[in-house]
Amino acid sequence: MVDEDESLEISRDDSAESEIVFEQGIEISVSLPHKKVKELHALSGGERSLTSIALLFAMSQVNPPPFLVLDETDAALDEANSRKYGDMLEKLSKHSQLIVVTHNRETMSRAGVLYGVTIGSNGASKLLSVKFDEATQIAK
């Protein structure tokens, strides 16, 4: 998700006068292509999402967790970044089990199994599951 001309810098915020390290914040400065370096709070929603996702994915590559739960982390992404996000999900899924909540079709197309919740005729919630490969073959 981070190309050659992008960078992410994380530094400790020493402006807090607390002796406890965990009470001090961190500053995240981001350099996106063709843009000036900005702090996280100055980025757009999509840029903040990309930065947060890049940090999470980088940590997961260093020390892969057994599973990751991602709840609509792709909601603010455009189509091109959704494809990059999907590529990263595929790489992560080789080392960790992923549970992804999404409404993004591009992200759904990368899933092995899709689960959906709908309202039945009696008004009760109903759970549906479809293996993506099977659904694709049925649709053809």
Automatic annotation (TrEMBL):
| InterPro entries, alphabetized | P-loop_NTPase, RecF/RecN/SMC_N
This protein's superkingdom?
Bacteria
What is this protein's name? Chromosome partition protein smc
Q: Where is the signal peptide?
A: none
RecF/RecN/SMC N-terminal domain segment(s) = 41-125
Which species?
Candidatus Nomurabacteria bacterium GW2011_GWD2_39_12
